């Protein structure tokens, strides 16, 4: 078949180039390729510097990049230097701790994230893990699957969810949805956040230590940044106390993981539900033998429904950027 | 030390005799023994007929019995014949399918149960199992604990809870609390019950088959009786369909278990969360290898808080019976 040029038609306009730094399922990848010329880092097999240099040297170098929260590639000064054509970075997660926002702001690189696409799923997962830890669901599951029920009979008692004081660290989209769900179970909600909110009936704590000492359960639902790294440290765990439960659906580094493992080993807190870890996919091996810990593999956002919503949000933001319209879920400019 | 008679005091009044047909923890047992002369079947080591004959032959034979839902001893005509002094049976569960209510009514034997002591805990457990099945929590737990995360990477996507149509079979105390919780997650509640309720905004279905065909999730929360045995049968599973999830916190025999196992094996339904089974503690071995099934060992009522509430409710009902006052949580007389 003749090329469009040979057939006398105008050549098809070149699709805008896009740097891609995450693996995508087939539908999502196809939707992007239909609209953009995707320069796929993982598919390239190249080392990062060579890949970036190649992209920057193209006649129409990429103006946008799609990156992944918790992924291997950080958007930092080095990356922005390597591809100076970049004007927009889209993070497929809610967290932007893998993006140096100051460097982006300095260079007028716009940033958007996944917005609230994942919020309900993450809140659901947090509540599921809390019920699991209190009511020993996964532990009872192991008990049944290993055939121990007929031999050993009754399983140890769990703990009631109703009436528990739940301290939420970070009352953003996700934290608010967790609060709403737990209210329906009869929990008493406390929270810590950068500032107190007039619009909610929950008790505000200015610092996490005080929040922990007046809570039975601590839920980490904040973004990771320099202020929230290890926001749950040895002192906070001590304040939570030996009957306290901790749930983390934020980022692994929000908790001092070594201290958490020590507190669990020594019975200084009662249990934990962890979807995130400091050095994913590495999980401290000491946790594997603990029946009072529930661990999942950073899957709180993993539903087919949110994946489909993410695809729409990604394309919507990229199309807005390339057509000079307002971003849908803008993080930068502030 | 001298006996009270020898010391000239009146002999202490004999505590009322009580038949006990369940194992109790130490605090609960002590609370009963303080108030009643407990004739403990399991501690006696006797066969049931000999134990009952011995109790009936006492100078002050027992007028009350404490029995356990799902326990080994049924309160039927034979038991009531053997101990004709019985005037009250207390079931430590909400279900009374182990008590022949018609025989009790015929002999004017009063019956009380645990009332709403367990309702919130059972509702919490049902929601926990539903999140677990949809979001693969226990399956992800096995994945992490077996060290597969670093080797295999991403875990399969789960399914969002919000927007799901949840059909509840039995909108009593427990069913209503499940509905209230799931509304907070954005679920759409449908129900089937003996009769439609004007006080709830949920859509009523006269039969379970129609409920299943308009639901994504079916939750069994009804009592077990002759009308509800195998209320979830092959046809209902067929109506629920291949994307459907079933949760059972009622009684194992509410579901035709053999048909459920077959439907799961053949992919004709998507998953199940089961706290109860037809032949507990026996669980069909085919389920042990299924990642889309969450199984717990009839622990939906197992919290230390509800255990303590049960102790209060048991003693309150027994003291009411022995002092001729109204029972607290009466089942019979109707």
UniProtKB/TrEMBL annotation, chains A, B:
One of its GO terms (cellular component) is cytosol. InterPro entries: D-isomer_2-hydroxyacid_DH, D-isomer_2_OHA_DH_cat_dom, D-isomer_DH_NAD-bd, NAD(P)-bd_dom_sf. Keywords: NAD, NADP, Oxidoreductase. Residues 63-331 form the D-isomer specific 2-hydroxyacid dehydrogenase catalytic domain. GO terms for molecular function: glyoxylate reductase (NADPH) activity; hydroxypyruvate reductase [NAD(P)H] activity; NAD binding. Pfam families: 2-Hacid_dh (PF00389), 2-Hacid_dh_C (PF02826). Residues 127-300 form the D-isomer specific 2-hydroxyacid dehydrogenase NAD-binding domain. Signal peptide: none annotated. Belongs to the D-isomer specific 2-hydroxyacid dehydrogenase family. PANTHER family: 2-HYDROXYACID DEHYDROGENASE-RELATED, OS04G0106400 PROTEIN. This is D-isomer specific 2-hydroxyacid dehydrogenase NAD-binding domain-containing protein. It comes from Setaria viridis.
């Amino acid at each position: 078949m003749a090329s469009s040029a040979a057939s006398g038609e105008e050549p098809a306009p070149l699709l805008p180039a896009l740097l891609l730094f995450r693996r995508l399922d087939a539908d999502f990848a196809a939707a992007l390729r239909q609209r953009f010329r995707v320069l796929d880092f993982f598919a390239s097999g190249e080392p990062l510097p060579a890949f970036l240099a190649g992209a920057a040297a193209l006649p129409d170098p990429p103006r946008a990049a799609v990156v992944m929260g918790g992924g291997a590639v950080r958007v930092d000064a080095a990356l922005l230097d390597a591809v100076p054509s970049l004007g927009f970075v889209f993070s497929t997660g809610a967290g932007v701790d893998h993006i140096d926002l100051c460097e982006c702001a300095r260079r007028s690189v716009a940033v958007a994230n996944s917005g609230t696409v994942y919020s309900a799923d993450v809140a659901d997962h947090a509540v599921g893990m809390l019920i699991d830890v209190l009511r020993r669901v996964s532990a009872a599951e192991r008990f049944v699957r290993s055939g121990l029920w007929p031999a050993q009979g009754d399983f140890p008692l769990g703990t009631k969810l109703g009436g528990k004081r739940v301290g939420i660290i970070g009352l953003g989209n996700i934290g608010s949805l967790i609060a709403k769900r737990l209210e329906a179970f009869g929990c008493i909600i406390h929270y810590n956040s950068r500032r107190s909110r007039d619009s909610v009936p929950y008790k505000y704590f200015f610092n996490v230590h005080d929040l922990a000492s007046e809570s039975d359960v601590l839920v980490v639902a904040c973004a990771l940044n320099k202020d929230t790294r290890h926001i749950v440290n040895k002192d906070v765990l001590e304040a939570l106390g030996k009957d306290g439960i901790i749930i983390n659906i934020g980022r692994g580094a929000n908790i001092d993981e070594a201290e958490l493992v020590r507190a669990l080993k020594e019975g200084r807190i009662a249990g934990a539900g962890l979807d995130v870890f400091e050095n994913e996919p590495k999980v401290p091996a000491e946790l594997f033998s603990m029946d009072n810990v529930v661990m999942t593999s950073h899957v709180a956002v993993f539903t087919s429904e949110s994946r489909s919503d993410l695809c729409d949000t990604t394309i919507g933001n990229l199309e807005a950027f390339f057509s000079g319209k307002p971003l849908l879920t803008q993080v930068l400019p502030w």
